Amino acid sequence: MRRGTGTGPRGTAVTTTAPGGFAGAVACERTKLWSVRAPYLCLAAGLAATCVFTFYYASIARINEHPVQPVGNAAASSVILVQFAIVVLATVAVTSEYATGSVRASLLWVPRRHRVQAAKALVAAVVAFVAGVSFAVVGTAVAWAAFGGRASFEAGPALRQILAIGVYQALVAVLTTGVAFAARHPAGALSILATLLWALPSVLLGLGGPALAKLNGLLPHGAGDHFMRIGGDAAYAPATAVLIVTVWAGAAHLTGLYVLRRRDA
């Protein structure tokens, strides 16, 4: 804890304390994140995209008379698009400081660089988890109305899918934070993440074939889709799927930390 002194109403000395260490770094990053408009815009865009995507997904299933499926699959499918609201939020939280030069002040306040990165990753992950769960709840409700009887609902599986979406979005936030620290520029970070989370999986699935499908299952979103979705022909258990995404997030975090420690701010 850091201590400071001030003067009370009658001239008496008053000692105040402020959180230090990792707790102080987290408090600082939380304040910085919510002091600008970008996070609010990203979350609003994510909510809007969830509503549109899940309504479209469920409407197509109803119109084409697809087999009955768990209603939560609509929200899980929307993540391929909605995750980029979290990606942009976490990217801006890092790269905006490099753009303005305020990262130098952050590293003066918290000299231990791993604390700065860990604090940003933790704050982004918590926000992403809460946002992911909220998006999933809203998306499930919208899809249930649009499915028109072409979906099933069970409380246990639906809750599992909602929490799985939140966990996946939190891991995407950690992954994004690591990439952003490594790239240090929004265009570079977003290019890497768009390729990894959307373009490459789309190409692999578009080309088809069991080998490419298996390779897609080892990518972050491919594994995350196995983790979030119920049914289908997943090649491995949900626990293995979330482990794959965790490994990707951990590798990105360590890469970002390496760059942060080796290069000047």
Automatic annotation (TrEMBL):
Transmembrane as UniProt keyword: yes
The keyword Manganese appears for this protein: no
Annotated keywords: Membrane, Transmembrane, Transmembrane helix
Bilayer-crossing regions: 40-60, 80-100, 121-147, 159-183, 190-215, 235-260
Protein name per the record: ABC transporter permease
